[in-house]
Predict the structure.
Amino acid sequence: MERTPEDVVRALVRGVSRLRGPGLDPDERERVLDELAGLYAEQTDVRHPFAPLGDQPLRSRAELRAHFAARGEPPAGLERWEAVDVVVHRTADPEVVVQEFRYAGRVHGQEFAVPLIFVTRVRDGLIVESRDYADHVGLARAFGHLPELASALAAQS
């Protein structure tokens, strides 16, 4: 049975939560990366319009897998990472869903919650297009990376 767009976007957020969370062994990490990449069509168009250093479109399943793999190990001090308050909205277009949620957790004993919205087109059970709107500054703040982000932004000007 083909997965619905709602099933696919929920699987995506669950997979990212598993990948980013603490305690994932290397073999399981590879399985999660394969599962995440398998949610996308061979050719896709994924963008992050609010990325502070500029959007780098991801156009293929292989690029998406590399994108997820590049996130590396969970940040130092990460105690918990999960998707919470997940709501999937249907649209007039049966291929398109809007997913609202927060990544929440604890790092170095401090709680954080970062809002996200994904606008995703799923065709034949695979993501063919997505616009992922995230609070990148909030993530940098949660993990103590604001100085690095500010330096990178200053270097672009």
